[in-house]
Amino acid sequence: MGTEIRNGKEKAKTKTSSMQSFLRTFLISFIVFVVLCTPGLAIFGEVADFNPFDPDGDNLVLEEHLDAIVDEDSPFFEAFKDKKRVNILLLGVNGNLTDTIMVASFDTKAKHMDLISIPRDTYFHRSGYNGDGENKINAAYRGNPVNTAKAVSEILLGMPINYYAVIDYDGVETIVDSMGGVPMDIEFNMKYTDPYDTPPLVINIPKGPQVLDGEHAVQFLRYRKGYTEGDIGRVKAQQVFMKSAFRQCLSFQLPKIAKTVFNNVESDITIGKATSLATKAMGISGEDIQTYLLPGTPLPDAPYFVIPDAEGTAEMINQIYSIEPKNTTEDEAGE
Known about the structure:
Elements: H1 7-37, H2 77-82, E1 85-94, E2 97-107, E3 112-118, H3 145-155, E4 163-167, H4 172-178, E5 182-186, E6 190-194, E7 201-205, E8 208-212, H5 214-222, H6 231-251, H7 254-264, E9 265-267, H8 271-280, E10 289-293, E11 296-298, E12 306-308, H9 310-321, H10 328-334
Parallel strand pairs: 1-4, 3-10
Antiparallel strand pairs: 1-2, 2-3, 4-9, 5-8, 6-7, 11-12
Helix pairs in contact: 1-6, 1-8, 4-5, 4-7
């Protein structure tokens, strides 16, 4: 396959890809942080409906704008209604656009989490918007997570979206620094420069064991060259980083870390709901987290739409919603 985008466009694509990878990693970290680390966060409020992400009460609440079950005509209506799942929309934003769109679907009975990535270029027609860029799902946001929630629910054949979390990458350095850095053993010298980034990106992390501060953690997450397995190698490295970050999160001033996260994330998840999720997530491990990419066909020509595959999406949702608890007999006995 030949080169599709050249010169400046190729640089822009590289920059966007690294940003998406970075945001994707932090979004996964955020949702697992909320689910696994919440029991110690009750100090931030004495009532279950307190929202630590929104102490002033300014954030939108999805349940006030969306029905719990979005589409009664969906072929998965019964599954959506009966399954004990909580679906959280995770958005990495850049201005009025979403660079990263994910749904974290947590099965509270099976103790299993599925992460569905929605390509930002996914075609999604919006009535009254005729420009090519306006018909990409990343343009639906416009500063309002409800807009993206509705679009994602439709793309996912009526899957309900219960909560949302919105971040940008400006506060990640502060979050990592608040946990005292992240211990890592860097396997090789990481050096990379992108003068086209704004500001220019300079990555320089030496080989060996060290504690990555916020600045170097961001560099590590954005590094994408030099892995022998290519993108798979980068994903594995990010997984190692997240595991180390979670260990550090649990051992180093959790309330301070939580406050920093709360100051850099917009969400409608309350203390009561987060605590409930954390309680149900007791015992979950990395083996209980499965990742998916929305089935679709990327078009080779500008504006490079990704055309969603409804049949493939149905197969994906059927797989996700068919997961059964590991110990059904014991679960039923306890009900």
